[in-house]
Amino acid sequence: MKYPERDVPPAGLASASPEAVSPNGHELAADAAQRTAGVAKTLPSPRPRPALNALVSFVDKTLVIGELEMRKLRHDPTELLTRAVQPALWLLVFGEVFTQVRAIPTGKVRYLDFMAPGILAQSVLFIAIFYGIAIIWERDLGIVHKFLVSPTPRAALVLGKALSAGGRGLTQAVIIYLLALLLGVSINWNPLALIGVVIAIVLSAALFSTFSLIIACLVKTRERFMGIGQVMTMPLFFASNAIYPISMMPGWLQVISRLNPLTYAVDALRTLMLVGGATSYGLGLDFAILLVATTALVLVGSYLYPRVVI
User: Fold this and answer.
1) Is 274 helix (H, G, I), strand (E, B) or coil?
2) What is the pLDDT of residue 300?
3) pTM, entire model
4) Cα–Cα distance, 44 to 255 (Å, whole number)
5) Which of 86, 92, 199, 234 pairs with 174 at a CA distance of 20 to 30 A?
6) Whole-number Å distance between alpha carbons of 83 and 80
């Protein structure tokens, strides 16, 4: 299918709008609605195993929504390169300088190695935190209305979008892994560790993108959302262990850092991504907090999703 050219969004929304809405958003939404509606028709009778059939239907519809969102990325692949500029600057400039200065104590780990997982988490955060603006764009184009009248559960709509944010986060992981490899970071290439990194990235992106969706459902305008998004990103990033150990923080900031889910995402990534990486809280706790927080936000987002059109 050949897609027509689209207008360039306003400069203030350039970070979010290209991925938010494709030029044929109505057609994609209609396609997704037909496919999700067809799931119920193709499934066998739910009488023998209704719970299993309902679960299969939910998963299938979730994946359809996720695939729809990822398909939008093909319309603007340059986004992958522009998104890589900021983490590259952090690693090449900030990381290299502070590695030479040795002003931040990181034990036996070189500062650039210590910082690389934090920058990966930062990149995932920055992608996901503005993801909710897609809902506002889709509402303005009438796409949300099509989803709401489809048989797709609200939770599947929200979770599908959250998984697509995880897919975008994985593209950033590939770029940051390549940069880290060129800079001599001691990367752990164990297959199990790589799988753990993938899970941590998907959970982190799903968590922050769903949180972003909730904010979008509450504020309902692009201008308010962009303002709130920009206010949230820096505190979340600096009130974490992404670029310095928590032990360096004052007591009050350490408390905030331990309440910050990004801290646990960084801890998991640092443990799995680096050779000899040590966890501060335990991988079990890291993944449990990310999973529980994501689940809770998906439930809240499912409840608030219809309100974006009110």
Assistant:
1) strand
2) 93
3) 0.80
4) 52
5) 234
6) 5
